Amino acid sequence: MVQLGYTLSSEEFGPQALADHARRAEDAGFAFASISDHFHPWLDSQGHSPFVWATLGAISQTTSELLIGTGVTCPIIRTHPAIIAQAAATVADLLPGRFYLGVGTGEALNEHITGQQWPPLSIRQDMLAEAVDLIRTLWGGTYVTEHGRFFKVENARIYTVPDTLPPIHVAASGTDSAVLAARIGDGLISTSPDAGVVDAFTTNGGSSPIIGQLTVCWGSDAEKQAEVARTYWANSAIPGQLGQELAIPQYFEQAAGLVTADKIAESIVCGPDTEAFHQRIQEYTDAGFTHVYLHQVGPDQDGFIDFARTHLLPHYQ
Q1: Which CATH number belongs to the domain containing residue 20 in this structure?
Q2: Is 275 assigned a catalytic role?
Q3: How far apart are CA 237 and CA 58, in angstroms?
Q4: Which of 148, 210, 245, 287 could be stapled to 195 by a disulfide with Cβ–Cβ 3.0 to 4.6 Å?
Q5: If we measure between CA atoms, which residue out of 58, 265, 316, 37 comes closest to residue 171?
Q6: Active-site hit among 21, 26, 38, 130
Q7: Which of 12, 107, 111, 130 is catalytic?
Q8: Residue 187 lies in domain
Q9: How many CB atoms lie within 10 A of CB 123?
Q10: From CA 151, how far away is CA 79, in angstroms rounded?
Q11: Total domain count, the chain
Q12: pTM of the entire structure?
């Protein structure tokens, strides 16, 4: 049976709130969590973007059982993979046996800030493959000197290496990326119930976990929650490759201005209808996902966690 997780939205909350949400999610019975790794929020209305590695340190002190990972880290431009290797090793030591590193090819929104060129997807995929290989090599705990096609390290050694190395799960939204995920990763992360992506992953040797994200906006009134979702997460309805190419939140705000509440309701479960939540979760199950983490949009995280505790989690345990 599919396992349910909880999304810690770094775009919408500061580090102290996120650490508290993680504790509440664990207390409610969520099996795992994902935390976004951004430099900018998608929209100015979201209002936050704390440094994920410091936030994970705080979460390690507020939880004792929750499995948590980044959803997802881009280790190719903004942050060198050697630094990600050290950061992830440190967090895995703080969260023994309950941390995974989620990686992906990123978005211009977060990665252009250092002034480097924003490469096309095919190049970013090659960069990601090299970065993951370097991270795994550095986790060996020995001195590493490599001059790769994209990354160089000289006499680099990570001294704090956890007894249990974290798995690396790779994000994919298309079949080419799913094939790459099968080749370099220990699991798959995707944001829509696309059976074709899952099939490309599994037929090329990928195995569980296959993790999906479902964005929701629970509340007592469906129409009101659609407006809340449009205010805080209209970026989810921006089509095509714009999400990877737009550079600053203001550009996303401009594109999001074209998104209606009706359009939001097509992609985000809004309102109090428990059956609507189960139906959307079932779509992921039918597509072959083994895990689904639920992203509650907007301020009312406590209300959603209580709803999940009583109406959702008992059906998936």
Answers
A1: 3.20.20.30
A2: no
A3: 32
A4: 287
A5: 37
A6: 38
A7: 107
A8: 3-316
A9: 15
A10: 11
A11: 1
A12: 0.96
Number of residues assigned to the chain: 317
Position 20: which residue type? D
Q: In a structure prediction context, what are the per-residue pLDDT tens digits for the chain, which is 317 residues long?
A: 899 999 999 999 999 999 999 999 999 999 999 999 999 999 999 999 999 999 999 999 999 999 999 999 999 999 999 999 999 999 999 999 999 999 999 999 999 999 999 999 999 999 999 999 999 999 999 999 999 999 999 999 999 999 999 999 999 999 999 999 999 999 999 999 999 999 999 999 999 999 999 999 999 999 999 999 999 999 988 876 777 888 999 999 898 888 887 888 888 999 999 999 999 999 999 999 999 999 999 999 999 999 999 999 999 98
Tokens of 128: 């990601």
State the angle between helix axes of 52-62 and 81-94 in degrees (0 to 180), rounded to the nearest 10. 10
Is 38 assigned a catalytic role? yes
Instruction: Name the token pair of 317.
Output: 């345990």
Q: Which residue has the tokens 């881009």?
A: 74
Token couple for 158:
């990570």
